[in-house]
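pinging the channel bc i need a second pair of eyes. not urgent but kinda urgent?? the chain im working w is below, pasted from the shared doc
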Amino acid sequence: MIRYSLLKSSKPISLYEIESLNKEFGFNLPEDFCHFYLLNNGGEIEGNRNIFVDEDEDEYIIKYFAPIKYVYFDSQYTLEKLWKTFVVKKKLIPPTYIPFCLEGSGFPICYNI
């Protein structure tokens, strides 16, 4: 298994922030997803391992993982803002998908719950 380190993570979160997000979304976030965010509240992948390859072998450069609640830099999207923008407001993503990451051109990468 390859281990990745994240840089520029936002302020750490607790289970309280995750429980608040569960209430806002109307479902419980998956355990592995919560574990990831309790260890690293978003951030950028260290080094040059920031390419995601999907099942069709299309490659996407990961810009950053969106943090929960707290931003590292002012123009950054939080996970909540990605959800509200792409799922609630624009209805571009089904509600069973969590946009948690942005690729290089600004499109979200999602986790299917």
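so Strands lie at 6-7, 44-45, 51-53, 59-65, 97-103, 108-112. and The first strand starts at residue 6 and ends at 7. — does that match what u expected or am i reading it wrong
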